[in-house]
Design a protein that fits this description.
heterodimer, A: alpha/beta, Rossmann fold, seven-stranded mixed sheet, five-stranded mixed sheet, 12 helices, 36% helix, B: 332 residues, alpha/beta, 44% helix
Chain lengths: 326, 332
Amino acid sequence: MSKKLSISKAIGEALHEEMARDERVIILGEDMGKMGNVFGITVGFQQEFGEHRVYDTPISESGFCGMSVGAAMRGLRPVVELMYDDFIMVAADPILNQAAKMRYMTGGQATVPMVLRLPMGAGRRNAGQHSQCLENVFCHTPGLKVVAPSTAEDAKGLLKSAVRDDDPVIFMEHKLLYAKKEDLPEGEYTIPLGVADVKKEGTDITIITWSREVYFALEAAEELAKEGVNVEVLDLRTLVPLDWDAIVKSVSKTHNVIVVSEEVKRGSYAGEISAQIAEELFDELDAPVERVCGLNIVSPFSPTLEDENFPHPADIVKAVKKVLNK
Amino acid sequence: MAKKKYSKEMLMDLYRTMFRIRAFETRAAECFTKGMLAGNIHLCIGQEAVASGACYALDKDDYMATTHRGHGHTIAKGGELNKMLAELFGKKTGYCNGKGGSMHIADVEGLHHLGANGIVGAGIPIATGSALASKILGDKQVTLCFFGDSASNQGTFHEAINMAAAWKLPVVFLCENNQYGVSTNIHSVTNTDTIAVRAKGYDIPGKTVDGNDPVVVYEAVKEAVDFARAGNGPSIVECVTYRHQGHYCGDPAMYRPAEYMEHAHHDDAIPNMRARLLDEKIATEEELVAVEAQVAADMEAAFEFAVNSEYPDPSEATTDVYSSDNERSVVR
């Protein structure tokens, strides 16, 4: 049995189920209560669960992220939203210096079971401070787990696991996927963190990707199939912990790889994955790993400019052909 | 001056705690000078009255968050000298198994100590979050949040106190005003005479008291703790005191005028309280010597414990980063 839901509704359903299941789960963030979130994810939650569990915070990202660290250390399970990924720079200390490090610095004593939900990504003409993909910042920081789902089914199952996880989890949601309606299973289910998913099987080349670019990779795969190229699309879903076994399995089969993400290319997590493959799977490769990412620029506003700043299916097709020398 | 008469037991406890803190800090400084300790050691010599008076106002199960200059607060909350000094030595037997050092001592489950913090002002929202948890859990615990005068100029001060006030959270914001942020005098970067005056901006109680008298500190903090526990929300208690040493071990503190140290010595809580206990015939010389000798013996034992403890095995560098899936998350 399955049902059709938008990805934002699937995320809302995960939160709703977890709040009903565990009263330690609380929600904090700007406009999460009365309004029910700018993307409508928590509509009705405050009325149902009460003001003591769903907080409309003031515009104090550093303050309420820091408070979530303290509340989590005391056994609550805060799910916090920054309205846009980019706002992490205002709340860098509580997340990168406090939440991420607390367990290690205290010799394993402190547990910070919080989830930070981050709407991210380009394509909505949100310009320079509301459009970034900052996976590299979070993946670079030891102590954080990082999740970036692409489908409604994955988003729901992974978010439920993230809420139940005892580590701080960064949950990256692409804004342009929110409205996408997809099939997902009826009833409760979870998907474990750290398990990648083959979204399309293939034999000629592996496209490693996550979040919105999964759809572009699938579109590219369709294009390439017309030319006889059989592409495998590996959706990482979780970036930390990385499902290395899935990468090894796929690369050992296809012997060609491109890594696709929306990040700024320089210093990207896509680059990190590429480096790890080059270091450890060199003998499996028929060609160097190619990265297909955004440009090394500030997110632009104008459509003609912004559209240059994230990989489109055509860019992926081009990169595949380059790697396969076609 | 203190308002009420207090029991001999309480006054002796306050004196003992202050003496323990100074003994610990003095020994830590000695070890640092001898090259036995490394890293950043921020001493609170001169500030002992704040720690001992404030923590005396807490119930055992109340929570506390402190700062980079947090040894005194930890001792006053009941911290063991052995495990503290071992942590400063980077030994496996320390509070954080040697992973945190001086600036990250915590004992979350045991002492309800949410940790020192290496980032100035970062503990303020963490303590406020603990108070939010208490309010949600309905456990009636208060969280005491220590921070320095300089942290009051961080954004976190405003953000956290604003939310604590708006949501009436059970937290006491204790500003330990030693008047210096490293070399910068608070009055050269702040337009108000006190930090506590800012409480008006949040419509919460605020008070500035002599931070060199543990009984005065106790009274002010107790009032704020009771206020918070009764569900009335946060207060700011500012305790004005002196930092006898530089910002960290090894800082000669040449930037302070001579008068600062003259005042510091004149107002030094430990000799002053000792004299008062004798003058007011609360304790005899023998009783005080016995307290001091016991502290010295405890300190000696802590030193032996720290020196003789093992360092963590190098393989432990990669443990405790994550609570689950640690190995896989650390490798890649």
